[in-house]
Specification:
This protein has 14 helices and eleven strands. Helix 3 crosses helix 4 (about 45-60) and helix 9 (about 180-190) runs parallel beside helix 10. By secondary structure, the chain is α/β, with parallel strands linked by helices. The N and C termini lie far apart (about 50 Å). The relative contact order is 0.11. The longest helix has 17 residues, at about 205-225. The strands form two sheets. It has a six-stranded parallel beta sheet, sandwiched between helices. A five-stranded parallel beta sheet has the order 7-6-8-9-10, with helices on both faces. It is elongated, with a radius of gyration of 25 Å.
């Protein structure tokens, strides 16, 4: 009785678009048979399932989400929570692409839940949990002691984080080894004779800030290079702020002869600041930067790069959330990507 009522509700709310009744009419099958065929029910023959699903695809049938929730208690929604003031567009587009690519093969849909600098980052998380608006959540800008992660663990909301926490709690994550990145960057700069190095870091407060800082400091000690402080800006500052600060530092008598940059967009500002000071990249100073696409060498061939694949991050995060929803152990849904080699123009491949 409940199933029949749900199906009627779904039909009533779907005026103007294909419905289960449309599919039943076109295939000559009953509504219940069509519904089960769409769900790959094993009691429905393989040929019938294939035929129903093919017709559904051809006419653009989509199940009514309210009806799905009534039947299953699920929304079939994964929410990607993003800070609209801080995330770089290349990061946003690539991570959405990676998540969407995985969800395309499932009944799940992606929604992006934005929040701004003026909002408490907890607000969108509380909303998603309290309203049951999603079956799983992906968050970025992860902190060592992240209240969002603790809240979702306490309330049983499946989630994955882009970046690790340091809370002693086991949860799914995808991360890039920023300690290894910063160390490799310092060693490469030292190998070409650079001894006075500056770091443009992630913003303090995020977990990968500490990883990057420690990798930079450990490698400085290893190679015997010195640090030129550059901590009044981070990659969260504007392009103009980073450019001006770089130009100021590069006009000093004791200036950096090497930079390590944690983001490609910020690297553009560093190069502009170097050139504002009348200096030349590759002659007076070298820069090692992370990048998520093969673009920096189109800007300046002298740049040295390490690739970070945000599409892979999105794919891994989507699989982790789906795995957790499916009952997998959280500890089995963690991935840490080891930083690749520092690459010059002649050896830099296009990331997959």
């Amino acid at each position: 009785m409940d199933r029949r009522r749900t199906e009627k509700n779904e039909e009533a709310s779907a005026q103007g678009r294909p419905t289960l009744k449309t599919l039943a009419f076109m295939t000559g099958l009953g509504v219940t048979t069509v519904s089960r065929a769409l769900k790959d029910a094993p009691e429905i023959g393989a040929e019938t399932r294939r035929r129903v699903q093919l017709v559904a695809k051809q006419i653009g049938y989509r199940p009514n989400r309210a009806g799905v929730r009534l039947r299953t208690g699920r929304t079939n929604v994964i929410s990607l929570v993003l800070n609209t003031d801080r995330e770089i567009m290349s990061f946003v587009s690539d991570i959405i692409y990676g998540v969407s690519e995985v969800l395309a093969e499932t009944p799940y849909h992606l929604i992006v839940t934005p929040y701004s600098r003026s909002q408490d980052p907890m607000e969108p998380i509380r909303y998603l949990v309290e309203t049951g608006s999603a079956d799983g959540v992906i968050i970025s800008r992860t902190q060592p002691n992240d209240p969002r992660a603790r809240y979702m663990l306490e309330h049983g909301m499946p989630f994955a984080t882009h970046g690790r926490t340091d809370m002693g709690l086991v949860h799914p994550y995808h991360d890039f080894d920023n300690h290894a990145f910063a160390s490799a960057a310092v060693r490469r700069l030292a190998s070409i004779g650079r001894r006075r190095l500056a770091l443009l870091s992630p913003p303090p407060g995020l977990t990968y800030y500490g990883h990057t800082l420690n990798g930079f400091a450990d490698a400085l000690s290893e190679v015997g290079a010195s640090e030129i402080p550059f901590n009044t800006v981070s990659i969260d500052h504007t392009i103009e702020q980073i450019r001006m600060r770089t130009a100021q530092v590069m006009r000093r008598d004791v200036r950096p002869d090497g930079f390590v940059s944690s983001a490609a967009a910020a690297t553009l500002a560093i190069v502009a600041g170097i050139e504002d000071a009348g200096l030349k990249l590759g002659r007076d100073v070298d820069v090692v930067s992370k990048q998520s696409s093969d673009l920096l060498h189109l800007f300046r061939r002298e740049l040295l790069v390490v690739n970070e694949n945000f599409r892979l991050a999105g794919s891994d995060l989507a699989r982790s959330v789906l795995g957790l929803i499916g009952g997998a152990a959280p500890g089995s849904l963690q991935s840490l990507v080891v930083a690749g080699d520092v690459q010059a123009f002649s050896s830099s491949p296009v990331p997959a």
